[in-house]
Each structure stands twice: as C-alpha cells, then as structure tokens.
Amino acid sequence: MSHSSSSSDASDNRPHLGRPMARLENRAILTGRGQYGDDVAVPAGTLHAAVVRAPHAHARITGIDASAALAVPGVRAVLLPEDVAAWSKPFVVGVKQPMEQWALAQEKVRYVGEPVVVVIAESRYQAEDGADRVTVSYEQLPPAVDVVEAAEDDAPVLHEKVGTNVVSDRSFRYGDPEKAFAEADHVIALDVRYPRNSCTPIEGAVVVAQYLSAQDGYEASSNFMGPFTLHTVMALALKISGNQLRHKTFKDSGGSFGVKQSVFPYVVLMCLAARKAQAPVKWVEDRLEHLTAATSATGRASRIEAAVRADGRITALSYDQLDDVGGYLRAPEPATFYRMHGCLTGAYDIPNLRVRNRVVLTNKTPAGLVRGFGGPQVYFALERVMQRISVELGIEPLALYRRNFIPSDAFPYQAAAGALIDSGDYTGALDRVRAEGGLDDLLARRDAARAEGRLYGIGYAAIVEPSVSNMGYITTAMPAEARAKAGPKNGAIAAATVGIDPLGGLNVVVASSPAGQGHRTVCAQVVADVFGVQPEQVAVNVEFDTAKDAWSVAAGNYSSRFAGAVAGTLHLACLKLRDKLSRIAAHQFGVAPEDVRFANGKIFPEQAPERGVAFTRLAASPHWAPGLLPEGMDPGLRETAFWTPPQLTAPDEQDRVNTSAAYGFAFDVCAVEIDRDTGRVRIDRYITTHDAGRILNPALVDGQIRGAFAQGLGAALMEEFRYGADGSFQSGTYADYLLPTTCEVPEPVILHQETPSPFTPLGAKGVGEGNNMSTPPCIANAVADALGVRDITLPLTATRVMDLLGMEDPPSSKPQEEASAEPAGKGGKALAARGEVLLPASPEAVFAVLLDPKALANVIPGCNALQAVGENRYRADVTVGVGMIKARYAAEVSLSELDPPNSLRLSGSGLSSVGSAKGSGKVTLTAAEGGTLLGYDYQAEVSGKVAAVGGRMLEGAAKIVLRQLFEQLGRQAGGGSAASASGPWWRRLLRRLGVGR
Predict the structure, then answer these.
(1) Distance between CA atoms of 230 and 250, rounded to whole angstroms?
(2) Upper half-sphere CA count for residue 469 (Cβ side, 13 Å)
(3) Sheet (strand 660-674) strand order
(4) 135/426 Cα distance (integer angstroms)
(5) How does pLDDT run across 583-595, given as a tens digit for each residue?
(6) Is residue 678 classed exposed, middle or buried when 0-12, 13-18 and 19+ CB atoms within 10 A define those classes?
(7) For residue range 344-394, what is the model confidence (pLDDT) as tens digits?
(8) Are strands 903-912 and 885-899 parallel, antiparallel or unpaired?
(9) 0.85 cut: is pTM over it?
(10) 772 three-state secondary structure
(11) C-alpha–C-alpha distance, residues 598 and 604, integer Å
(12) What is the DSSP string of 939-964?
C-alpha cells in the first residue's frame, strides 16, 4: 500500500523522514523494467546448469554414471563429487564437529534434494535432459526424521565421525532458578512444537558464476541477501582468499524473507561448475527445488516451565529446547537458537532463567534463516505458557501482562540472559489496544457468541523484536573457554557511502541487499533531510559489489537491521559530507561553518538567506575549481561511514550476551470464530500494536507489518513442510504446501507508538519480522480460548481443528473406487487404490495376457521395454509422469500368488533419478455378463521428487495409472474397450440387476 507524498513541494520544510512517501522503486518495477536476477545480461558464452538431486533422505552413494548425460547434444560438462573434493573444502560452521557438508554430496546423501551432480549445457533444456540421463546408484539407510527420536542414543546416525545426531548440547543458568521453582506457588508447564515451514518469494535463487584464473579466482553474481560473514564461508570453501571471490548482487530481488541466505552453497557450486566447464555458468532455481532443498525454518520441540506466584508474577522460566536443523548444521546456524538467547524472557521482568539447547541433525533439508528466525520458535512456547497461566490461575490476561511486563521506567533494561533492551512502554501498548483497537467490543462479541453456543475465542501475544544483530551472539554456542581460545567476536558494523558528482547530484551506496522493502526510498529521504533537497534528486545504488563497495562481515539485509543500522549509518555519512560542504560554503560566504544552512535546494548563511546558492551549483564547484577550496582541505566529495553500537559486546564468561542493538515491541490481540462443521478458523479481528522506535516511513512500516502478518497467519493456519517416515519430502507443490491468499488474510488493525532507541543513529528499530513472531502464538491462543483446550499444534488446519473438536471425517462417498495418499509406515508417500473395471474378455483371456511378456509390455503404461528375468518376473524400462515430474524408471515386475483364472498378486519396484517406488496389489477376476469384473486393491510407496509433488497429484496419478493399466489389459485380452464399474450409479445398478447392458 502506498501513500501520496508532497515531497516534491520545495516550499514544504517538514522533514522527509516520518512521512508516508511513495516508493521510488515502484515506477521501474511496475512497468516491467526491474532488474531481477534472471533479467540481467550474462557474459558471452554463458552455459546453464541443472542439478541432479538425491531422491533418498539417507543413503550411501554406490556409483555415478554420467556417460549418457555427456552424450546428450549440447551438454558440455558434468561436475562430479570428485571434482568438488579436488577443488574445494567442506563449509565451515560455528560448532566444531567432524561433520562435513560439501557443495556436492560425498559418499552419502542426508536429505531428499541434496545436490549430487551438476550437468552444464548450452541451454537449461539440454542440461535438464542431461540430468535425466545421469545414473546414481544408492544403498538406502535407515533415516532419522523426528527430532526427539533423532536425539536418542539408538537413532540412525547421520555423520559417523560425529557419532551422534546431537551436535551441540549446552546448558545455561542465570540467577537462581532452582530456588525460584522450589518457592513457586505454581509451576505451569507445556510441551510444544514449532513446525518446519518456510517462505516462498516469487523469485527463486539465481546465480551466475565464472572462473577467472588461479590468480584472480572467481566472480559470482547472485540474489544472496547476507549476512556477508558467509562470503568468508564461501571463500574458504573454494580454497581461496576473500579478495579472490568477487561477489555482486542484483539491483532487484523478488522477495527473500530470510531464505535467500541459503543461496550461498549454490554460489560455491556454480563457481566449481564454471571451473569444470571452463565457461561462465548460470543456474536458476525452480519452484520444486526451492521447496524441497533451499532451506527450512528450524523445527523446534520445547518443554517450557514457569515458576509463578499466586498473584501471577513469574519468577523463573525453564526451557528445554531441541532444534531440528536437518541433514547438516549449516552456517549461520545455530543462529536460530542464539539470536534470541539474550531475550528469552521476552517482554517480561523475570530474574531467573535456565536453558538447555540441543542442536539435532535429522534427514531433512538444512535449516537456516526464515523471517524472524528464532522468534517464532521462542514465542510460540512463551506466549502459549502465558495463556495457560491466565487460564489455570484465573487471572484476566491484560492484568497478567501488566503484572509481568518490564516497567516503563526500567529501560534500558538488562534481561537475565544479557539482552540490553533499549526502550519501551509496554503497558502503554495495552492502554492503546483498549482505547483505539476496540478490545472491549471484541470481549462483548465473545460473550454474545458463547451465549448462542458459538465457538469464539480471543488470544493475546506480546513479543520483543530484536534488530541489528550482534555478530558475536552465535559464539554463545561455544563454552567460554572455547570462545577465549578463538578470540572475541561482536559488533554489527554497517557501512554507507554518499558522494556528489560534477553536476551536484547526490549518489548513495549502502552495504545492504534489499528484497522489496523500499531501501532506496528511505535512503533518499535520509539524504534529502540532511542536504535540504528533494528525495527525487538522490540516486541510491543498491547493487552491491564486494570488490568495489565498502562492506563488513555484518553487511546484508537480515535481522531487521536496515532502519537501525544501514539508514542510520547513511545519516552519519551524510553529516560528514555536509560538514565538509559547510566549511566550503563558509569560506565562500565569509561566515562560520556553523552558520551555514541547507534547505529548499539551496545553501545559504543563516542570517542572509538571500545570498543562497543552489545546492547543485555550490556542491559541484569543488569538482571544477578545487583551487578555491579552503586551505588544507582535500578535494574529494565522497564520504564513507562505518558504525557499530558499543553496546554489542562479546558474550561474557557467564554466557550473558546482548544479542541485538535495539528491541522493538509488539502486542497483538486476535479474535477468532471456529465453524463446528468444517473446522475453519475465521479471524474476526486482528489488532497489532507496534513500537519500532522512530518511524522513518509509515507507509513502508505498515507494508512490512501486513506482510509479516500474512506470513505469520500462514504459519499458524496452513504452512508446514511434511516428511514421510523415510524422510521423503511431501510438500513440493502449492497443492500440499498451502499459502494464504488475499481471501484468507484480513486487514489487521495497526496501531503505533514510538519510543526512539537511544542506541541507533536515527532512533529507529526494526519492524519487518515482528508479526511472524507474534501472530502464530496469538492465533493459537485464540483457538485455545475458543475450544477450551490445553495443547495446540501448528498449523491449525481444518483437520487438526476437527481433531481438537473430537470429530471424525465422514466416510468416503466413493466406495467403488478410492485412492488416497497417506504417510507411509516406513516408506515415503503411501498410496492406496481400490476399484473395479469391467473388461470385455473372459477371466481366462485376461489371465493369459498377464502371463505373456509381450502382451504385458503393451499393458503397463509408459513401458518402453520388458525383459523376462525369471518365472513370472520381469525387468522393465518405464516412463512415468506425475504433474510436472517425468522420469524413466528401471523397474522390476513380478506376479505371485497365482490362482488362475481367479486371482494373482502384481508387484513392482523401480528406481529413477527422481526417486524410488514400490507397490503390490491383489487382482481378482470374476466372470460377469459381458466379460470379467476385475477388482484391484493396491498399495504403493513413492519417495524422492515424485513424492514431493504432493498427495493431491499422487492421488490422481494412482487412479489414472491403475485404470490405464487395467483398461489396456481388457483391450489386449478382448480386443475391445473396458467399461468402468464405477460409472453412473443407475447404470451399475441396472447391470447388477441384469436389466441394462
């Protein structure tokens, strides 16, 4: 949503910051002139890459044959694991363990979708054709899928050199939690889980890479978002120095929401692919790749306990947390644990805390940064236990919050685990919700709805939103002695540059990687206010080049750091340049530098505005007449500022750490009504109150709140990555990974209060992640209130809500032919199909076809060849397609339990580049008028890419493939066409009665 702005009115002297100015980026983007990754021109001779991915969650690689791929026209090279081992090293991580993740899997694969081979060709089409021809042989291994089970001693181990799936186990203690729990009047405890989910930017990953030389290293462009600590990780993996990896970002990025941090392994992979092909290489991630293998929000299993006095005052918290980080602990993890560590007590004045953090490997996609990372996991536990305290102690929720909030006069407030929470007025937010949000009206609605027997509930959530991360917080995962040995790490260095060109134009470069937030607009507002010009006069370059631009390891666009750190640092750079211009102007005007003013596009003496000179003229003059500069002044008109908050120190010996520079606040209220018949959760009203410090652009802030709210709603009601018991990924399409649309997302009531941060240059705090942290527990608390239940599992799909209501699904209305996709017992996606088909041939003729290899080859859909390998056993080459996925399977087919001509069992298994499949079914043949009534009851399991397309497509495929098989069987046996026994009900009834034909 954009707001009109009077910024072009030169007579308006109001500051531009604080105004809801329309985005400067919009014109190019809305007219199709954006420069996204796939739009940018590539070097001549650029080739294209396709990645061959593991179809199994846990398997040993026993062989790779790429010869057929190299024979495909247009294929120029194939990057193999041995190439990666020769030219690179494993990625480094913050937890020291003998656990290796390479750009391509070495010896074993540990999640479905792990890269195994890269095919490089003249076009993406040819590369994909080549990828289909790569044969990889696997020996499947038992998987570890559930995070709690994976932490057990007898779980299958992913990394033998580690010897356990628990790669980090740290305990912390602050204050005297044992005493607090011993003296508590009540101990309120909950076991909760936060699911794996992600976010789906409209643009996937894009990487263009080239190998320059042994001396110059590599050059890569990508839509990587940072943090640029990972530039070091990439350079180390490539076995080069940092200045041998030139990394550039694109001007525009089609969303990130955290996940484009996960581009960095593919930057390394495509650099190596370019080295193998001896040409530039481009790779564009497709949607299935993104869902299956990009990244995931960290799944967490938590037990939280609160020591509570009789009046509701919380004196201690205890967390026991297990984080599901997937197949590898990938940098910057375990960030999801430790970004929130300093503020685990949230918005509450709780002096005692104990924590146990276990980082657990499972056979799933590696976890990483997803919007609000760490926050949703912490606050789902903390705010759910707040709701339970309110219920079990009978304390009105707002009274409970007032009793426990950090007092307004206590800021800056040092939390038990070390966070220095800069500013706030939390009780003031409660007053605002009641006065401006219509809370009393919602309470009245709830009373009225319940009087009518309707299911209506109100939930609350309070969260502290950290912004501008301390780059040393991850070292909290290491014991104090290990940190001392490695050396301290801390700070949050931001960099910004502003310069003036020979025509007096202002040019800005910031070390950030925006993904649609409006950074150019806010930067222009910052500069315009300092120099007294209009934002339209400022050119902001958000493309980023590590070889040319000022940056640090903290550079990037993550953890809500832009407003507090980047915009603030730009402000400091502008002040430095303005001071220089003031001295130049003072020399010309014959006044003191402090008497020079900048306003309305002019520079003038404060006491004589009529002597004013156009900004563009005076600012440009040092380019043309440097000899007129004051004595001793250098001629440059370009200033770079670096900034880091001194409050961000390294973790101390007691493991206390101030994890962020600034802490925003959000207090949410959600009212829901639940349909008893469908389980649908309808949001009646959602109120969200934010304190983001000084608001730089209200329109952009509200846009960020709406976006985070929509994403938080998706996490609460729809979004979840599902895995089979064998680790097969089962959410590879939007049919199974459900996203909210405008139909499901109501307009939230947004309220603001501003308590500027004393620790950031402009007083601003972050706001872009808050509702992704607060909305899931707020909706969960509302549903718990409506249903009167204790335990809530996200996402609250209609099926889960019906389970909470204690109601079962009605029986199927299609008893004659059914197909379903359910989680398998020990396999991937389990399919079951039952039905009947009327075949125009006798049972004997049908049975004879099944025993004839040539006839059977014509019956099996997609069968390219069939070869007998034993009695009633065959080896087949079969092409199968489900949705967008099509692959050739090397299959084995067998017939058993023969009872001619009455019944048999048809079994098969297959392996392809996109996964495996196996199934078995009973086939019965019964003589009927006009032929044979064939009945089938078939069960199958599929894994890998085919399973990832989701249950809905597989259900349809199960029906289609089986019916094709049996109908073709009828044609082979009788030379006619098959008729469905599940046709119109009246026709079936007449046939059974012997009336119809």
Answers:
(1) 17
(2) 29
(3) 455-469, 660-674, 681-691, 749-753
(4) 60
(5) 999 999 999 999 9
(6) exposed
(7) 999 999 999 999 999 999 999 999 999 999 999 999 999 999 999 999 999
(8) antiparallel
(9) yes
(10) helix
(11) 7
(12) EEEE-THHHHT-HHHHHHHHHHHHHH
